[in-house]
Amino acid sequence: MYQHRLYLIENHTHMHVGSGEANFGTVDRLIQRDAVTGYPVIHSSSLKGALKEYCEHHPFSQEAPAWIRHTFGDETQAGKVRFFDAWLIAVPMRANTRPYFACTSPAALRHLLEMAELAGIELIDKEALKKAAAYSGQHIAVSEGKAVIEGYEAKAQEGIDFDALARYTGDPCALVPDSLFEELLKDLPVIARNQLDNGESKNLWYEEVLPRKSRLFTLTAFPTHINAQDEDLHKHFDRLRQALLDEHPVQIGANASVGYGLCTFREVAHA
């Protein structure tokens, strides 16, 4: 048996977790994508590696040296904690009435509900999320008034609790039909990067980024069937939780030297 924890990840700077692929020469470095939805994702191996590096520099690694080995594993043993992919729940999109809306889709909400149920986690505002996940309208839905988001009309939609959505997506939020959301996510920001050698440009490349203020969700799982002699493992598992929630930014993905990938974690409260 495993006990799961559900976390929201907010990136406070642009993020590039590379897939190692190029876009037919247009974009040299693409980000990781979910194989089913095509949404941006952080694969579990990339997330685990980033968290291990973060935790290795945390004070806990000095207080309890075995913590890293038991949590993440090493060359002699596997780690005890299971790490999952981080899936997109919301991405900021530009609007005419305000700088941006935190946009999500019914499919993203359905995935959140599905993974929470699989993990045995009862989400706060679950019924409100289910109503939003069942949205089948053709326009972008917002809480009130009208707006234009990325060139598409958005208007108020009754029956959706946008305050409940904002708990997970950020505020202000908008609900985008699945097909449109998928289309919009194909055109994420692309940033030109330049390598200089003595002030001379030697290598110009273009890389795709997940913009700041995007949010993802992920799960961790640790075993509850622990032998008496291993009861200290419970302390190790709690150390991981405390390290993620101590408000220090975790750097995920490439380009740390230019401030990419600074994220904070927030545990999703259970009903």
Q: How would you describe the overall organization of this protein?
A:
The chain contains eight helices and 14 strands. Helix 3 crosses helix 8 and helix 4 (106-118) packs across helix 5 (126-133). It has one domain (2-17, 32-187, 210-267). Helices cover 27% and strands 28% of the residues. The chain is α+β, with helices and mostly antiparallel strands and 271 residues long. The strands form three sheets. Strands 1, 2, 3, 4, 5, 9, 12, 13 and 14 form a nine-stranded mixed β-sheet that branches. Strands 6-8-7 form a three-stranded mixed β-sheet, with no helix packed on it. Strands 10-11 form a two-stranded antiparallel sheet. It has helices spanning 44-56, 60-63, 66-72, 106-118, 126-133, 162-169, 178-184, 232-244, and strands at 2-11, 41-42, 82-83, 86-94, 100-104, 140-142, 146-149, 152-156, 173-175, 190-197, 200-208, 215-223, 250-251, 262-267. The model has no long low-confidence stretch (mean pLDDT 90). The protein starts with a strand and ends with a strand.
Distinctive features:
alpha+beta, 3-stranded mixed beta sheet, 9-stranded mixed beta sheet, 271 residues
Give a quick rundown of the structure.
The chain is α+β, with helices and mostly antiparallel strands. It has eight helices and 14 strands.
Describe the secondary structure blueprint for this structure.
Elements (H helix, E strand, L loop, with lengths): L1 E10 L29 E2 L1 H13 L3 H4 L2 H7 L9 E2 L2 E9 L5 E5 L1 H13 L7 H8 L6 E3 L3 E4 L2 E5 L5 H8 L3 E3 L2 H7 L5 E8 L2 E9 L6 E9 L8 H13 L5 E2 L10 E6 L4
Parallel strand pairs: 5-9, 6-8
Antiparallel strand pairs: 1-12, 1-14, 2-4, 3-12, 4-5, 4-12, 7-8, 10-11, 13-14
Helix pairs in contact: 3-8, 4-5
